[in-house]
Design goal:
By secondary structure, the chain is an alpha/beta fold. It is built from eleven helices and eight strands. An eight-stranded parallel beta barrel has the order 1-2-3-4-5-6-7-8, surrounded by four helices.
Length: 334
Protein backbone atom coordinates (compact mmCIF):
# COMPACT_ATOMS: atom_id res chain seq x y z
CA UNK A 1 0.00 0.00 0.00
CA UNK A 2 2.82 2.40 0.87
CA UNK A 3 4.54 1.66 -2.45
CA UNK A 4 1.29 2.29 -4.31
CA UNK A 5 0.94 5.69 -2.60
CA UNK A 6 4.58 6.46 -3.47
CA UNK A 7 4.00 5.66 -7.15
CA UNK A 8 0.80 7.71 -7.14
CA UNK A 9 2.63 10.72 -5.69
CA UNK A 10 5.42 10.43 -8.26
CA UNK A 11 2.88 10.14 -11.08
CA UNK A 12 1.04 13.22 -9.86
CA UNK A 13 4.26 15.23 -9.86
CA UNK A 14 5.39 13.90 -13.23
CA UNK A 15 1.95 14.36 -14.78
CA UNK A 16 2.18 18.02 -13.85
CA UNK A 17 5.54 18.30 -15.60
CA UNK A 18 4.25 16.50 -18.70
CA UNK A 19 1.15 18.70 -18.81
CA UNK A 20 3.32 21.81 -18.55
CA UNK A 21 5.55 20.59 -21.35
CA UNK A 22 2.48 19.85 -23.45
CA UNK A 23 1.23 23.40 -22.96
CA UNK A 24 4.63 24.76 -23.87
CA UNK A 25 4.63 22.60 -26.99
CA UNK A 26 1.40 23.97 -28.34
CA UNK A 27 -0.99 21.49 -26.87
CA UNK A 28 18.79 -24.09 -27.86
CA UNK A 29 22.31 -23.69 -29.57
CA UNK A 30 23.54 -20.40 -30.81
CA UNK A 31 24.49 -20.24 -34.48
CA UNK A 32 26.52 -17.42 -35.99
CA UNK A 33 24.90 -15.90 -39.05
CA UNK A 34 28.20 -14.86 -40.64
CA UNK A 35 31.53 -13.49 -39.54
CA UNK A 36 31.14 -10.56 -37.13
CA UNK A 37 32.02 -7.16 -38.59
CA UNK A 38 35.72 -6.37 -38.74
CA UNK A 39 35.02 -2.99 -37.15
CA UNK A 40 32.18 -2.16 -34.78
CA UNK A 41 31.84 1.60 -34.26
CA UNK A 42 32.25 2.90 -30.72
CA UNK A 43 30.25 5.99 -31.66
CA UNK A 44 27.16 6.24 -33.85
CA UNK A 45 25.83 9.41 -35.46
CA UNK A 46 22.26 8.96 -34.22
CA UNK A 47 19.51 11.16 -32.87
CA UNK A 48 18.11 10.30 -29.48
CA UNK A 49 20.11 8.29 -26.94
CA UNK A 50 23.70 7.40 -27.81
CA UNK A 51 24.20 3.60 -27.81
CA UNK A 52 26.78 2.17 -25.39
CA UNK A 53 30.31 2.09 -26.74
CA UNK A 54 30.91 -1.39 -25.31
CA UNK A 55 28.43 -4.08 -24.44
CA UNK A 56 24.67 -3.80 -24.79
CA UNK A 57 21.70 -2.25 -23.04
CA UNK A 58 19.21 -4.74 -21.62
CA UNK A 59 15.53 -3.99 -21.33
CA UNK A 60 12.03 -5.38 -21.54
CA UNK A 61 8.44 -4.80 -22.48
CA UNK A 62 6.27 -5.88 -19.54
CA UNK A 63 2.51 -6.27 -19.95
CA UNK A 64 0.61 -5.16 -16.84
CA UNK A 65 -2.38 -6.71 -15.13
CA UNK A 66 -3.98 -3.28 -14.98
CA UNK A 67 -3.62 -0.73 -17.78
CA UNK A 68 -3.61 2.24 -15.41
CA UNK A 69 -0.55 4.44 -14.82
CA UNK A 70 0.18 2.87 -11.40
CA UNK A 71 -0.52 -0.60 -12.79
CA UNK A 72 1.86 -0.13 -15.70
CA UNK A 73 4.65 1.12 -13.43
CA UNK A 74 4.02 -1.61 -10.88
CA UNK A 75 4.41 -4.27 -13.59
CA UNK A 76 7.94 -3.07 -14.41
CA UNK A 77 8.91 -2.62 -10.77
CA UNK A 78 7.80 -6.16 -9.95
CA UNK A 79 9.58 -7.55 -13.01
CA UNK A 80 12.82 -5.91 -11.90
CA UNK A 81 12.39 -7.29 -8.39
CA UNK A 82 11.63 -10.75 -9.77
CA UNK A 83 14.70 -10.79 -12.02
CA UNK A 84 17.15 -8.87 -9.83
CA UNK A 85 18.07 -5.55 -11.48
CA UNK A 86 16.88 -2.27 -12.91
CA UNK A 87 16.40 -2.35 -16.66
CA UNK A 88 18.36 -0.10 -19.00
CA UNK A 89 15.47 0.30 -21.45
CA UNK A 90 11.71 0.24 -20.91
CA UNK A 91 9.54 -0.52 -23.94
CA UNK A 92 6.10 1.13 -23.93
CA UNK A 93 3.42 1.18 -26.62
CA UNK A 94 0.97 3.86 -27.75
CA UNK A 95 -2.00 3.73 -30.05
CA UNK A 96 -2.09 6.19 -32.91
CA UNK A 97 -4.22 8.84 -31.16
CA UNK A 98 -2.60 8.48 -27.72
CA UNK A 99 -0.73 11.53 -26.43
CA UNK A 100 2.86 10.80 -25.53
CA UNK A 101 5.19 10.99 -23.73
CA UNK A 102 2.65 10.41 -20.97
CA UNK A 103 3.25 10.40 -17.22
CA UNK A 104 4.30 6.74 -17.25
CA UNK A 105 6.89 7.35 -19.97
CA UNK A 106 8.17 10.32 -17.97
CA UNK A 107 8.35 8.24 -14.78
CA UNK A 108 10.68 5.76 -16.45
CA UNK A 109 12.90 8.40 -18.04
CA UNK A 110 13.20 10.46 -14.84
CA UNK A 111 14.05 7.29 -12.89
CA UNK A 112 17.09 6.67 -15.09
CA UNK A 113 15.84 4.29 -17.76
CA UNK A 114 15.96 4.79 -21.51
CA UNK A 115 12.57 4.83 -23.26
CA UNK A 116 11.58 2.95 -26.39
CA UNK A 117 8.04 3.84 -27.50
CA UNK A 118 6.17 1.89 -30.14
CA UNK A 119 3.73 4.13 -32.00
CA UNK A 120 1.02 2.26 -33.90
CA UNK A 121 0.56 4.37 -37.00
CA UNK A 122 -1.36 1.80 -39.02
CA UNK A 123 -3.13 3.91 -41.69
CA UNK A 124 0.01 4.42 -43.71
CA UNK A 125 -1.73 5.48 -46.95
CA UNK A 126 -3.59 8.17 -44.99
CA UNK A 127 -0.43 9.28 -43.21
CA UNK A 128 1.45 9.48 -46.50
CA UNK A 129 -1.38 11.55 -48.00
CA UNK A 130 -1.16 14.13 -45.20
CA UNK A 131 -4.44 13.28 -43.45
CA UNK A 132 -2.76 13.18 -40.03
CA UNK A 133 -0.27 16.03 -40.32
CA UNK A 134 -1.83 18.03 -37.47
CA UNK A 135 -1.77 15.03 -35.10
CA UNK A 136 1.83 14.20 -36.03
CA UNK A 137 2.90 17.80 -35.56
CA UNK A 138 1.29 17.88 -32.12
CA UNK A 139 3.09 14.69 -31.07
CA UNK A 140 6.35 16.13 -32.38
CA UNK A 141 5.89 19.33 -30.34
CA UNK A 142 5.17 17.33 -27.21
CA UNK A 143 8.19 15.08 -27.68
CA UNK A 144 10.40 18.09 -28.33
CA UNK A 145 9.10 19.85 -25.21
CA UNK A 146 9.75 16.70 -23.17
CA UNK A 147 13.41 17.45 -23.79
CA UNK A 148 14.78 14.00 -22.92
CA UNK A 149 16.27 11.58 -25.46
CA UNK A 150 13.77 8.91 -26.49
CA UNK A 151 13.61 6.15 -29.07
CA UNK A 152 10.53 5.85 -31.28
CA UNK A 153 9.49 2.75 -33.22
CA UNK A 154 6.98 3.99 -35.79
CA UNK A 155 4.53 1.15 -36.65
CA UNK A 156 6.70 -1.72 -35.49
CA UNK A 157 6.21 -5.11 -37.24
CA UNK A 158 4.85 -3.26 -40.24
CA UNK A 159 5.78 -6.24 -42.45
CA UNK A 160 3.32 -8.67 -40.83
CA UNK A 161 0.92 -10.00 -43.48
CA UNK A 162 -2.07 -9.57 -41.13
CA UNK A 163 -1.38 -5.81 -41.01
CA UNK A 164 -1.34 -5.25 -44.77
CA UNK A 165 -4.96 -4.08 -44.79
CA UNK A 166 -3.98 -1.18 -42.51
CA UNK A 167 -0.34 -0.58 -43.38
CA UNK A 168 -0.78 -0.97 -47.11
CA UNK A 169 2.20 -1.67 -49.34
CA UNK A 170 5.86 -1.29 -48.53
CA UNK A 171 5.84 1.92 -50.58
CA UNK A 172 2.92 3.24 -48.50
CA UNK A 173 4.83 2.51 -45.30
CA UNK A 174 8.06 4.12 -46.47
CA UNK A 175 6.16 7.24 -47.57
CA UNK A 176 4.36 7.40 -44.20
CA UNK A 177 7.63 7.00 -42.27
CA UNK A 178 9.36 9.73 -44.28
CA UNK A 179 6.45 12.17 -43.92
CA UNK A 180 6.22 11.55 -40.17
CA UNK A 181 9.94 11.98 -39.64
CA UNK A 182 10.02 15.10 -41.83
CA UNK A 183 7.35 16.74 -39.65
CA UNK A 184 9.31 15.85 -36.49
CA UNK A 185 12.42 17.34 -38.08
CA UNK A 186 10.57 20.52 -39.07
CA UNK A 187 9.31 20.95 -35.51
CA UNK A 188 12.84 20.42 -34.21
CA UNK A 189 12.21 17.20 -32.27
CA UNK A 190 15.83 16.12 -32.61
CA UNK A 191 15.75 14.23 -29.29
CA UNK A 192 14.08 11.29 -31.09
CA UNK A 193 16.01 8.22 -32.19
CA UNK A 194 14.07 6.55 -35.02
CA UNK A 195 13.86 2.76 -34.61
CA UNK A 196 12.84 0.60 -37.58
CA UNK A 197 11.57 -2.73 -36.24
CA UNK A 198 10.13 -5.38 -38.58
CA UNK A 199 9.95 -9.12 -37.81
CA UNK A 200 12.69 -11.71 -38.11
CA UNK A 201 10.23 -13.90 -39.99
CA UNK A 202 9.80 -11.16 -42.56
CA UNK A 203 13.52 -11.21 -43.30
CA UNK A 204 13.60 -15.00 -43.48
CA UNK A 205 10.75 -14.95 -46.00
CA UNK A 206 12.25 -12.06 -47.92
CA UNK A 207 9.70 -9.24 -47.63
CA UNK A 208 10.74 -7.18 -44.59
CA UNK A 209 13.62 -5.61 -46.51
CA UNK A 210 11.19 -3.79 -48.82
CA UNK A 211 9.90 -1.68 -45.91
CA UNK A 212 13.26 -0.05 -45.13
CA UNK A 213 13.01 3.78 -45.40
CA UNK A 214 16.76 4.25 -46.02
CA UNK A 215 19.81 4.97 -43.89
CA UNK A 216 19.27 8.73 -43.88
CA UNK A 217 15.85 8.26 -42.24
CA UNK A 218 16.69 5.57 -39.65
CA UNK A 219 18.79 5.68 -36.47
CA UNK A 220 18.45 2.08 -35.22
CA UNK A 221 17.91 -1.08 -37.25
CA UNK A 222 15.82 -3.36 -35.04
CA UNK A 223 13.94 -6.63 -35.17
CA UNK A 224 11.30 -8.55 -33.24
CA UNK A 225 12.75 -12.06 -33.07
CA UNK A 226 10.52 -15.00 -32.18
CA UNK A 227 11.05 -18.66 -33.01
CA UNK A 228 7.45 -19.44 -33.99
CA UNK A 229 5.78 -22.83 -33.59
CA UNK A 230 9.04 -24.75 -33.89
CA UNK A 231 11.80 -24.12 -31.33
CA UNK A 232 14.77 -22.97 -33.41
CA UNK A 233 18.17 -21.72 -32.23
CA UNK A 234 18.27 -17.96 -31.76
CA UNK A 235 21.04 -17.66 -34.35
CA UNK A 236 18.79 -19.33 -36.92
CA UNK A 237 15.95 -16.93 -36.12
CA UNK A 238 18.30 -13.94 -36.50
CA UNK A 239 20.30 -15.07 -39.55
CA UNK A 240 18.50 -13.28 -42.40
CA UNK A 241 18.02 -10.09 -40.39
CA UNK A 242 21.70 -9.94 -39.45
CA UNK A 243 22.74 -10.31 -43.09
CA UNK A 244 20.63 -7.23 -43.83
CA UNK A 245 21.87 -5.29 -40.78
CA UNK A 246 25.50 -5.88 -41.67
CA UNK A 247 24.99 -4.09 -44.95
CA UNK A 248 24.22 -0.99 -42.85
CA UNK A 249 27.16 -1.16 -40.48
CA UNK A 250 26.93 2.50 -39.47
CA UNK A 251 23.63 1.73 -37.71
CA UNK A 252 23.37 0.25 -34.20
CA UNK A 253 21.31 -2.93 -34.04
CA UNK A 254 18.48 -3.57 -31.59
CA UNK A 255 16.45 -6.64 -30.70
CA UNK A 256 13.26 -4.74 -29.85
CA UNK A 257 11.34 -7.85 -28.79
CA UNK A 258 12.26 -11.48 -28.23
CA UNK A 259 11.12 -14.32 -26.02
CA UNK A 260 10.25 -17.97 -25.71
CA UNK A 261 7.52 -19.83 -23.88
CA UNK A 262 8.54 -22.53 -21.40
CA UNK A 263 8.28 -25.19 -24.15
CA UNK A 264 8.78 -28.19 -21.89
CA UNK A 265 11.89 -26.81 -20.21
CA UNK A 266 13.68 -25.40 -23.29
CA UNK A 267 13.60 -21.75 -22.24
CA UNK A 268 16.66 -21.59 -19.90
CA UNK A 269 19.00 -23.20 -22.43
CA UNK A 270 17.56 -21.18 -25.31
CA UNK A 271 18.02 -17.92 -23.40
CA UNK A 272 21.58 -18.89 -22.45
CA UNK A 273 22.44 -19.57 -26.09
CA UNK A 274 20.80 -16.29 -27.14
CA UNK A 275 22.96 -14.42 -24.61
CA UNK A 276 26.09 -15.97 -26.12
CA UNK A 277 24.89 -15.09 -29.61
CA UNK A 278 24.39 -11.41 -28.75
CA UNK A 279 27.83 -11.18 -27.16
CA UNK A 280 29.34 -12.76 -30.29
CA UNK A 281 27.71 -10.04 -32.41
CA UNK A 282 28.83 -6.73 -30.84
CA UNK A 283 26.91 -4.52 -33.26
CA UNK A 284 23.79 -5.47 -31.25
CA UNK A 285 23.55 -2.55 -28.81
CA UNK A 286 20.18 -3.14 -27.16
CA UNK A 287 18.17 -6.28 -26.35
CA UNK A 288 14.62 -6.23 -24.97
CA UNK A 289 12.71 -9.23 -23.66
CA UNK A 290 8.93 -9.34 -24.20
CA UNK A 291 7.43 -10.34 -20.85
CA UNK A 292 3.81 -11.00 -21.71
CA UNK A 293 1.34 -13.74 -22.57
CA UNK A 294 -0.56 -13.60 -25.84
CA UNK A 295 -4.03 -15.10 -26.20
CA UNK A 296 -3.35 -17.30 -29.22
CA UNK A 297 -1.81 -20.40 -27.72
CA UNK A 298 0.84 -21.83 -25.40
CA UNK A 299 3.74 -21.12 -27.75
CA UNK A 300 3.20 -17.38 -27.15
CA UNK A 301 3.24 -17.39 -23.35
CA UNK A 302 6.49 -15.48 -22.85
CA UNK A 303 6.02 -14.07 -19.34
CA UNK A 304 8.60 -15.12 -16.75
CA UNK A 305 6.40 -14.33 -13.74
CA UNK A 306 5.40 -17.92 -12.99
CA UNK A 307 8.68 -19.53 -14.03
CA UNK A 308 11.55 -19.63 -11.54
CA UNK A 309 13.84 -21.17 -14.17
CA UNK A 310 12.93 -18.42 -16.63
CA UNK A 311 13.62 -15.68 -14.09
CA UNK A 312 17.00 -17.24 -13.27
CA UNK A 313 17.83 -17.46 -16.96
CA UNK A 314 17.06 -13.78 -17.50
CA UNK A 315 18.94 -12.93 -14.32
CA UNK A 316 22.03 -14.41 -15.99
CA UNK A 317 21.73 -11.66 -18.61
CA UNK A 318 21.23 -8.97 -15.98
CA UNK A 319 24.24 -10.08 -13.93
CA UNK A 320 26.53 -10.38 -16.96
CA UNK A 321 28.81 -7.27 -17.06
CA UNK A 322 28.39 -7.18 -20.85
CA UNK A 323 24.70 -6.27 -20.30
CA UNK A 324 25.27 -4.08 -17.25
CA UNK A 325 26.99 -1.13 -18.88
CA UNK A 326 25.56 1.25 -16.26
CA UNK A 327 26.82 -0.83 -13.37
CA UNK A 328 23.43 -1.31 -11.73
CA UNK A 329 23.24 -3.13 -8.42
CA UNK A 330 22.36 -6.78 -9.04
CA UNK A 331 20.33 -8.77 -6.54
CA UNK A 332 19.21 -12.37 -6.50
CA UNK A 333 15.98 -13.00 -8.40
CA UNK A 334 12.83 -13.79 -6.47
Amino acid sequence: MARTRHIACLLTAIAGCVALLGCQSGAGQAQKTSSPPTHTPTHYDVSGPEPPAQGSWLGAAVTPDEYTPPGRIRAYDEFEQDTGRQLDVVHTYHKWHDPFPDEVDAYFVYSGRQLLTGWAGSDCPGIAAGEYDDLIRQRAREVKAFGKPVMLAFRWEMDRPNLRGEVGSAADYVAAWKRTKRIFDEVGATNVGWVWAPTAEGFTKGYAQDFYPGDEHVDWIAVDAYTGMEVRPFGTVMAAFMRFARRHENKPVMIAEFGLSHRGGNRPGWLAAARTYVKDNPEIKAVLYFNGDMNDGPTRQFALDNSASGRRAFHSWLSDPYFNVRDHEVKQPR
